[in-house]
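ENTRY TYPE: protein
CONTENTS: sequence, structure tokens:
***
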Amino acid sequence: MPAKTVSVTEVLAAAVAGLGGQERPGQVAMAAAVEQALSTREHLLVQAGTGTGKSLGYLVPALLSKDRVVVATATLALQHQLVERDIPALLDATEQTLGERPSYAVLKGRSNYACLHRVREGVPDDQGALLGAEQLPSGSLGAEVLALREWVEEEATGDGTGERDHAPRHGDRAWRQVSVSHRECLGASKCPFGTECFAEAAKERAYAAQLVVTNHSLLAIDAVEGIPMIPEYDAVVVDEAHELVARVTQAATDELSVPEIERASRRAGRHVEGDEAEDLADAGEVLREAIDETPPGRVDRLPPQLGDALVLVRDAARALASAMPRDTGEDAGAAQAKGWAQELFATAERMAAGADADVLWVAERDRNRGGNHLCVAPLQVWGPMRDKLLYDKTVVMTSATLKLGGDFDSVASSVGLRVDERSSDDAPIERDASHLPWRGLDVGSPFDYAKQGILYVAKHLPPPGRDGLGAAQLDEIAELVDAADGRTLGLFSSRRAAEAAAEGVRERLPHLTTLAQGEAQLAELSALFVEDPHTCLFGTLSLWQGLDVPGDTCQLVLIDRIPFPRPDDPLMSARQRAVEQAGGNGFMTVAANHAALLLAQGAGRLIRTTSDRGVVAVLDPRLVTARYGAYLRASLPPMWTTTDPAVVRQALGRLAAG
């Protein structure tokens, strides 16, 4: 708690001045609302458009709070921005005003930190033996691992944090050679390097900090799954909150594959005297046959063969875990093998139960990657979020896209807040066991979307079909890109569509540079896109969110079709059916909201500064012809809208001419 009694307004003004910025009305309104929410324990949803400065809008009241506040982000990129730039700059700018320098810490999942035991003792192979430095694979992977090991020792001797973000350049396979998951960890009390452990040191810093920065997944594991990961806190600010439901769902999703069962059996074999490891391997073969006999997709009722196989795996995994030494001590191989067996048991038990609260499906995968496997996810997460997060904590959720169809109701319902609990100044709602009051606030945006952007819907095109892009769509794309002279970000519903569009533009407009996702790492593609304005970048979902390319680089955002979930998506289709069985509109509640959110995120790639100008072109006529089109358009920034292709090509031509 600051030594001086200061107001949020005073500290915010000092921060803005210290950072060389200008006061933004939306930022001031947001800071005041967050302060009120933290003091009254009323939940808050804040839509803050790009350029509002929402980080300061919640960081300032969080630092002034009497309680520990957790800030959770969806992406490591935003987490890195907060910890490496925003928070230190804020404290530098306001330390004199505050009268002290509040403490903060970053907390990530264990696998994001290097493991000294793995680096110094080696990595277990499939037979359970430890691989030392002399046994590392040759080539670039071996070189990456050796460089990582040297870096880890430098971090250990130099009081570093051992975080992956600070490591030398490497791939996922190399990082797995120097890190462990929570199930592989020996535990600080048993590990010979527990007193030096980077992950434990991060937890200690978090226990001493007033502000803890983490991610959605860790928040979900801590609050919803009930596994203690974060020091006790009273309030949480969820940034990028439009991602929260998906991240909570992801954290509660389990997978079961035959190769995983085989690896667990091999690694446990040397730690048990009986046949338990072989029994698990045999159960895995029975499961393989059952999966092969089950069609890919959602499994509404367990077929007897699959149900029996899951019970066999469950019982074999339980027997194997029981046969392992009760105290594995400092034996990393034994501890990890026991952890895998226990996790296999829990997953197989969950799948075999066939609970109505879960959705089970067979996911397709190539044989050379292990073949088809099973997945299970919660049918909904709003119930657990309400009971285990919203009931106990004060939650502030913020994003540039929280209003779908023009209001907050859809997002509020998806996280466990009821529409009838929404508060107002005229009718405040008291918080109790049955009521969790919340408010929605849209602080607007500093951008004048009506003047800066055009929403063009290609009404004359045929509705998109199952066969991907047709000749009419490819012609439209080429004409728009030609008018923009490059400067195009193409957002497509599938990799096949993105590649087809890229090939079509290359054939028709060879003088432009056209890049497609998958041809290089995303960071490299983004850099190439920024370097040359006469460039197009076409890709799928990872480009729809988070890509920040202000200026002349991007003056045209192409969206090939409304991004509804696939009809055969197991989880989305199950959720849609559940809404319909409860008497609701499953399409609007699930599919339309999913599409509205992605459309808003995609359209948001266009205007990133007050000087940006451009066009969002949607090649799906249903955005203006279908009944649900108005709902989707109400979720987008308020751009000037047209269906006239000639008007749009002229506008793009004027922008390209500068």
